[in-house]
Amino acid sequence: MRTDTAPTILRQDYLPYPFRIPTVDLAFDLAPDLTQVHSRLTVERIHPEAAPLVLNGEALSLISIRIDGRLLSPEDYQLDDHQLTLHPDKPAFTLEIISTCRPAENTSLMGLYQSGHSLFTQCEAEGFRRITWFADRPDVMSRYTVTLRADKTQFPHLLSNGNLLQEQPLSDGRHEATWEDPHPKPSYLFALVAGDFDCREKTITTRSGRQALLQVYCDKGDYPRTAWALDCLERSVLWDESRFNLELDLDRFMIVAARDFNMGAMENKGLNIFNSAYVLADAQTATDASFEAIESVIGHEYFHNWTGNRITCRDWFQLSLKEGLTVFRDQEFSADMMARGLPDNAALSARTVKRIDDVTALRTAQFPEDAGPMAHPVRPDSYQEIGNFYTATVYEKGAEVIRMQHTLLGESGFQAGMAEYFRRHDGQAVTCDDFVNAMDSVYRQLAPGKDLTTFRRWYAQAGTPRVSVDLKHDAQAAQCVLTLSQRCDPVGVEKLQNPAVAKPPLHIPFALGLLGADGSPVLLETDGLKGETLVLDLTQTTQTWVFKNIAQRPVPSLLRNFSAPVIVEYNYTDEELALLARKDPEPFSRWEAGQSLATRCLLAMASKQGQSNTTKAATDLLAATWADIANDASLSPAYKARVFSLPSERVLLEKMSPIDPPALAQARRALRQYLGETLQDTWQTLYDNMCAALDGQDYRPDAASAGARALKNSALTYLVAATVTGALARAERQYYDADNMTDRMGGLTPLVNHAPDDVKARVLAHFYDQWQANPLVIDRWFALQATASSTTVADIQALMAHPAFTLRNPNRARSLVFQFCLNNIQGVYCEAGYAFWAEQVIALDQINPEIAARLARAFDHWARLVPKERQAIKLQLEKIMQRPSLSRNVYEIISKALTL
Ligand SMILES: [Zn+2]
Predict the structure, then answer these.
(1) Which of 18, 32, 267, 485 could, after both became Cys, cross-link 51 (CB 3.0–4.6 A)?
(2) Closest Cα partner for 281 from 751, 769, 815, 699?
């Protein structure tokens, strides 16, 4: 808890730790109320001078300290709430510390905590210091041996990292297990689990012929819902061997599902601990989106075994070294899984669907972050609380920065760069620069005269760059002159500190093509490049390219496959966008053009000129374009479902100035209704066709059938939104008849948003009755109501009084409070909404600061809202700031927001 102002940690202040700790021996006497930890460290001085040994510790009670067996007295050390400082007089010694902690009281879910009847740990970033005093930083790597002792009936499973050395009963009704991890690791990768679980397992043979045991542990009774997770884990192992040449380095790899968990999952060496939402799935309880998310998160954590665990971060400023790279790897894994077994064209379409989803996620979370008070580079320069920097910028933009290197080097060059990275740094704690150095060494060989010097600025510079495009056509010379200009405006605190700052240009790989007036691709030639898609190296503020042999003025297809995380500015006509949406052979840009046209319609409708004839012409053109796309047999249902998803409110808000959320919500509803009515027959046909295509099949979560369900449910939503006769009845029938959760939710969602109150109440009561024993399904029930357009603050308060609600469980808090504050534009943008949000931030901060800090960011964009809303939010920000015992996490978020 904050006592005065929190100190700011600076990247430039990094100093190596003055000691090595080669081995760590931990013995736990585990009990929820009081756990005793006996830690024995071997310590060696590296630094020649008399630097003290400073160890981190929080919420611990000290019993004793010994150096080489000698008991220290209180005058031998200094101890405060955060640090233990010792003054050893020998170059090498054994340090023993006995301490206790209280798992049952630990609601922060960092360190050792209780969830249900089991005990779990979460140590990244700084949780290990809540277990024992230690040099809790990623560049101190040690070999761990861990002995766990606990009651045998309550905790029959005792798990930790690495290999099980021995297990034996003790005389007092307890038992003990000893684990040894052969790989040196930083403390943030330590884990233990104690509880009574079901376990699904499988032995596989790795590429080199070794046997490895894969295990998925879950609460008793959840066993039937673990088959998909184990399957995903096995596919992850195989994929990392085949695509990245990286083999599992352990005899045993465990995943354990926890009901209470702050994040998605954690990659502890050999013992991944997961939020149960990313493990448990079957047709009855999980949607297609959940199956996909489980595959992605299991892949992600498994891939960390090399990118994160074998090579880790030198300090937390380098977090994107492991996260950006591993997100890129999990995105590629998912794309490869979706495309596997498909012919080329279908495979491209499947990969593009994944790319669309990833770019949408980036624009929903990262673009706003990069424009708000928390804007920071992929490699931040400072922080007050590292828990606040597990951000979309570090993860998603970090992954785009890796993807651009992949684009510049190509697949084989990138893999050569990865091999070089492991050759140089396996077993080390390194920096983002070290990674780029390895890639650069390969790039220089592949592209003589080029290097990644300018490219490195992506790691140092905050803000979303803008690339403006000028295309001039000279009919006489039959050539096009293309000029690309880049700029990156000051963001967040930069605006106050140095509004005139001129940021240097970045190295932007800019992929583009040109289409003729009939939509056919034009063969391009410039700078020795030739093809229908060229990747131009934009490295200066302004650059020009000339394309010859182009008789007629073409339509540019820009930033194909989203080749860089930038905003493109080009003045398309509506007709040009419609042409691209119908004809662009590159599927990402084709989708993008349709989204741009829809965005124009929505922004015009949300503005005062919304009713003009030009807006009417644009919405008519959008409807006609969608009708053509619906009839295009070459496009997959999954792709069409993405085309027919209107841009999200959070994405659109970023494009308004000033931001007017209620006007936007209204425009979005009106456009959905208009498209529902205008294309009524189209939706009807799509719905019937998709039902027929899926008819008679057992549920499978594969990409093709998930795509068919997505399109079917999208069509149903438009039919209901347009109040087409019989549509509500059809939705209700689908809800009751569904044999899987995707279709059940596909029927329920439009009912909750559009049906009369009595119908709505009936289906919601039925849903609750049916699923009340399954917490993950009940999370859906809360989330659905939290986001329904008619839901008010009073409704949310009533739901918070429901016996199934608790703020202490992060999934439950996210399903109701976060969903309302972040995703219910209609309900939350009002004085009562802002006051509710502030109350919940304050309440959560007493329980779990990390979760509270995430909620505290719901109105990051407050300074760009229309004046009335701005004032109302500012009042609440100030109210939170006045709380005397604010956590460092929330303090950092709110104080930064108030600087704007
Ligand atoms: Zn990760």
Answers:
(1) 18
(2) 699
| Confidence check: pLDDT of 798 > 50 | yes
Percent of the chain with pLDDT over 90: 96
* Residue 294 pLDDT exceeds 50: yes
Q: Is the pLDDT of residue 4 over 70?
A: no
pLDDT at position 494, please?
Answer: 80
Tell me the DSSP string of 185-204: E-GGG--EEEE-EEEEEEEE
Q: How far apart are CA 398 and CA 404, in angstroms?
A: 10
Residue 206: the pLDDT is 98
- What is the phi/psi pair of residue 674, to 5°? -60, -45
Residue 298 has pLDDT above 90, yes or no: yes
Q: What is the pLDDT of residue 323?
A: 98
**What's the token pair of residue 75?**
């005058």
Cα dihedral angle (613, 615, 620, 624), rounded to 10 degrees? 140
The catalytic residue positions are 301
Share of the chain above pLDDT 70, in %: 99
CA of 245 to the centre of ligand 1 (A): 20
| Distance, CA of 739 to CA of 813 (rounded, Å) | 28
Q: How far away, in angstroms, is 268 Cα from ligand 1 center?
A: 10
**Residue 3: pLDDT band with limits 50, 70, 90:** very low
Residue 463 is given by DSSP the state S
Distances (CA, A) of 137 to 7, 57, 163, 317, 449: 17, 12, 24, 11, 39
Cβ proximity of 333 and 860 under 8 Å: no
- Cβ distance 558 to 568 under 8 Å? yes
- pLDDT of 527 reads 85
Q: How many Å lie between the centroid of ligand 1 and the Cα of residue 142? A: 21
Distance in angstroms (rounded) separating the CA atoms of residues 419 and 611:
58
- pLDDT at position 609, please? 62
**Whole-angstrom distance, CA of residue 28 vs CA of residue 25:** 10
**Rounded to the nearest whole angstrom, what is the distance from the C-alpha of residue 153 to the centroid of ligand 1?**
34
Contact 122, 264 (CB under 8 A): no
With beta carbons less than 8 A apart as the criterion, state whether 462 and 376 touch.
yes
Tokens 């902690």 correspond to 101
Sheet holding 271-275, edge to edge: 197-205, 211-219, 252-258, 271-275, 265-266
- Give the pLDDT of residue 497: 78
What is the Cα 473 distance to its own chain's centre? 42
Residue type, 622: L
Contact indicator for 366, 393 with CB cutoff of 8 Å: yes
SS3 586: coil
Q: Could you tell me the pLDDT band of residue 610, with boundaries at 50, 70 and 90? A: low
Nearest to 279 by CA among 263, 266, 295: 295
How many C-beta atoms lie closer than 10 Å to residue 714's C-beta? 22
Tell me what pLDDT residue 240 has: 98
Query: Which uninterrupted H or E stretch holds 619?
Result: helix 613-631
- Centre of ligand 1 to C-alpha 323, Å, is 5
Cα-trace Rg, the chain: 28
Q: Is the distance from CB of 653 to CB of 866 less than 8 angstroms? A: no
Using a 10 angstrom Cβ sphere, with 0-12 exposed, 13-18 middle and 19 or more buried, the burial of residue 407 is middle
163 confidence band (pLDDT: 50, 70, 90): very high
